[in-house]
């Protein structure tokens, strides 16, 4: 496939965060772009407002006629999350089109560019967005394909005027193996996506293979303690090749010092909260230093960094209520989010609403979820969000509740959760999950405000 030949792009699963980024990219190049997704969301509405039509009926009759005949000017992209029996997917297959996964297209786009790829079972979205913001804010510039909506730029794709591209490298379905980066960051390698990998060792092998694909002369940056034999290590409050120290909270803001073998930066104010985000920042600083961004510019950029939508995002912060929303959907992510909230607000009672994501993940990590959620003061758990999966007999949210030691816990429907928040007015509320819990954020905010 030659990108320069492409004039029309159809995306099957266009509403996904990675897919929508590609849709915006190809429209930016001047291509005619449209696509299909299962349900309407705020993101698909934004695409529509930007001039990218999206259909929600899995029927070939809604595919524009100009997309129905294979040629070298038409590109069809699909996400592995699309069911194999999708009518639109099978139309393009049967019509003789060569279909490309999102990850393959990202690999083609980044080929020939200086690529900074950020991988990890968690931390990759915030870290890649930090790197991109530092490069933009410092004037170094870059293009970027991000796994979330940057709060600084209100988009998931950035366009630069140089040869540097920052990409989030997704381990799901081994997607990141299409990339050959110049700088690779690996933030974490905890067990996840066992529906794909089977066990933790196979996931670890995949990360090692990703690390081996770094271009000659390239650099691997990874968190200290990961089972990787080479690379530059980073850590928080622990000696490593690069590390953060003197971590403190002043007036609700996190501050820290950075040090590696050559550079010291003191009194860095991080524009977002969370100990885990200081760890992400250390990795982003190291990558930026490799790209010759000055220490002063890095410090300034981190102070103005606003984070990523649904990554420790403040929804409400007033005298009566603090409401934080986070994408955490793995036990380790939940622990990081909960501990950060409790560190910031040690004297407040923490009420948490959690929506488990995927039957397989709930089954595989039920004990880890129970342990993480036992850290809160009050828990409301929702039913499992199935995403691409069919139900698994005996796997449900009650499995988690049964294993928890916490007494103040209950399973509620979404509307019941909103009513409960309206009635009980929790002083400190945290919503967590990767499903459609984001659609509860505004109703919950209104419930807290008695709107």
From TrEMBL:
Domain called Mur ligase C-terminal: residue spans: 310-433
Database matches in SUPFAM superfamilies: MurCD N-terminal domain, MurD-like peptide ligases, catalytic domain, MurD-like peptide ligases, peptide-binding domain
Pathway given in the UniProt record: Cell wall biogenesis; peptidoglycan biosynthesis
Positions bound to ATP: 120-126
All copies of domain Mur ligase central, residue ranges: 118-286
Function in brief: Cell wall formation.
HAMAP family from the UniProt entry: MurC
Designated name of the protein: UDP-N-acetylmuramate--L-alanine ligase
Organism whose genome encodes this protein: Mucilaginibacter frigoritolerans
